[in-house]
Amino acid sequence: MKEIRLTVEGMTCLHCLKTIESALKEAGFTGKANLENREVVYYGKGTTEELSKVKETILKKVINQDESSTRIAFK
Q1: How many domains in the chain?
Q2: What phi-psi label fits residue 3: left (phi over 0), alpha (psi between -120 and 50 degrees) or beta?
Q3: What is the pTM (predicted TM-score) of this model?
Q4: How far is the CA of 41 from the CAs of 11, 20, 34, 35, in angstroms?
Q5: Which CDD domains match (predicted)?
Q6: If you average pLDDT over residues 54-69, what whole number do you get?
């Protein structure tokens, strides 16, 4: 397992952080979000398919929680 880091632009509050951590858990990944540096760290294989799944899962969960959350973007 590798440590994978994603910068999540638009993660601005504790609600976002908790929603993102919940999305990771539901997708079967172990990870944490850091609000201060707007970063998500999870553990996985690091494949392109896996990264796409993580991003899609986070986006779906955040948008379902708050329709105005379409401001979330990954770098």
Answers
A1: 1
A2: beta
A3: 0.78
A4: 14, 11, 8, 11
A5: HMA (cd00371)
A6: 72
- State the Cα–Cα distance between residues 36 and 13, nearest whole angstrom: 10
Rounded-to-10 torsion of CA 8, 23, 40, 28: -140
**Per-residue pLDDT at 25:** 93
HEC profile of the chain: CEEEEEEEECCCCHHHHHHHHHHHHHCCCEEEEECCCCEEEEEECCCHHHHHHHHHHHHHHHHHHCCCHHHCEEC
Measured CA to CA, the distance from residue 54 to residue 74 in angstroms comes to: 11
The pLDDT tens digits for 25-59 are 988 999 999 999 999 999 999 899 999 999 888 88
The CATH number of the domain holding residue 51 is 3.30.70.100
